[in-house]
Design brief:
12 helices, 12 strands, 6-stranded mixed beta sheet, alpha+beta, about 20% strand, disordered N terminus, single chain
Length: about 400
């Protein structure tokens, strides 16, 4: 069995009136994407972490003011971390969560104290951190600091990989197949870049979409390095981010966690990973792979579904909250066939999740927006599993 979509055809670039309108929208998105890319790259280059390997017994937590450097310097009040008597920095919320995890403090408790926004709550939190740290065993940690703020509190054997060479390798592989930036974002602790093949496809009449790949990484333990495929529905720019390619490809033996590796070894490890990313992207953006993904769109568009039961299942699996389930149901049940494709199908449900992701992004919650886009892809991946298509794909 060579292909898994229903009609066995190859998906040529679409030439319909719907596709022509989609290309106009796509050009606008690509113009914005090129502008955002420069901002993201500048931030990655300008915020390289300063590393310190320290003993837990050298650390003292406190509150007060500390100086932030970089593009927007200033004096900030909040939790601080001191190393010995010589160095003090701010403690980013990501690092705070990692400290709490090491000391066994429930994250819910941390969040509740942070939300109080009173001086006593910060002092209580610092006191708890110091007490638990003083009574614990001595350990070594890697502190990753940027512009006067510790953003990562990690094992001293954390697998450090420079984002720069990995990003360059990713961009080079995308350039070989003319993929262009369509979206990117960098936060304090992680970043992503979406690259899109500029062709427009129409696997289902009036369903126009494009196909691309997204690279994500964090230098501060806020998520792992990943390469994922995505689909973009061009009627309303819904994204569905699909399976993680890095976890499916054998990358060779990784550095073990029982040795403190030298900077040179870490550089070589980064180079090997960058080369692997190049190979993965080249395969992911191949015509054969695009054809298979678009075939999955057709299958999802043909597959009927009970949306209520599916949303309940997503809630039970903790992928969405009950409140989000209600929002998605409202979106799913809208009569508008531009926001979503028509019918009661897997494809419509996936796009309802993507539409909520767009709302979260508009509200400034980039992290949750990306998670919902991944869940939209999960809906499609489960359909693939249901029809045993993963096995078929492996045989092609």
């Amino acid at each position: 069995m060579a292909m898994f979509h229903h009609d066995g055809r190859n998906y040529e670039e679409a030439a319909s009136a719907a596709a022509a309108r989609a290309r106009v929208k796509l050009e606008g998105m690509l113009d914005l994407g090129r502008g955002r890319l420069g901002t993201m790259i500048d931030r990655i280059q300008n915020e390289q972490p300063r590393d310190m390997v320290v003993s837990s017994k050298q650390l003292t937590f406190g509150t007060g003011q500390y100086e932030i450097e970089g593009d927007e310097p200033g004096i900030v009040s909040g939790l601080t971390i001191r190393v010995g008597m010589d160095h003090q920095a701010g403690l980013h919320s990501n690092a705070l969560g990692q400290v709490a995890g090491r000391l066994g403090i429930p994250l819910k408790y941390i969040n509740e104290l942070e939300n109080v926004s009173k001086p006593w709550s910060a002092r209580l939190l610092a006191h708890n951190l110091n007490e638990l740290n003083s009574h614990g065993s001595s350990e070594r940690f890697l502190l990753r600091e940027v512009n006067g703020e510790v953003r990562g509190f990690l094992s001293d054997r954390y697998r450090r990989m420079d984002s720069g060479p990995i990003l360059e390798s990713f961009a080079e592989a995308c350039g070989r197949v003319n993929a262009v930036p369509v979206d990117s974002h960098a936060s304090d602790t992680k970043w992503y870049l979406k690259m899109l093949l500029p062709q427009v496809y129409e696997p289902v009449p009036n369903e126009v979409c494009s196909f691309g790949v997204v690279l994500q990484n964090s230098d501060f333990g806020d998520g792992k390095l990943s390469v994922r495929v995505f689909m973009l529905r061009l009627w309303c720019t819904n994204y569905a981010i699909r399976e993680e390619a890095l976890s499916q490809v054998h990358l060779g033996r990784r550095l073990t966690q029982d040795i403190a590796w030298s900077d040179k070894t870490c550089e070589l490890d980064t180079s090997a990973m960058a080369s692997s990313v190049f190979d993965i992207v080249s395969q992911t953006l191949s015509p054969e792979r695009v054809n298979r993904e678009l075939g999955l769109v057709k299958l999802a568009n043909d597959e009927g579904i009970d949306a209520g039961k599916s949303l309940t299942a997503l809630e039970r699996q903790k992928l969405i909250s009950k409140a989000e389930g209600k929002e998605i149901a409202e979106i799913y049940n809208t009569p508008d066939v531009e926001i979503l494709p028509p019918g009661n199908t897997v494809w419509r449900l996936s796009n309802a999740l993507s539409a909520l992701a767009g709302k979260r992004r508009d509200d400034g919650d980039e992290r949750r927006a990306r998670e919902l886009e991944e869940h939209a892809g999960t809906v499609l991946t489960r359909l693939e599993t249901k029809h045993n298509l993963a096995r078929v794909r492996a045989q092609v």
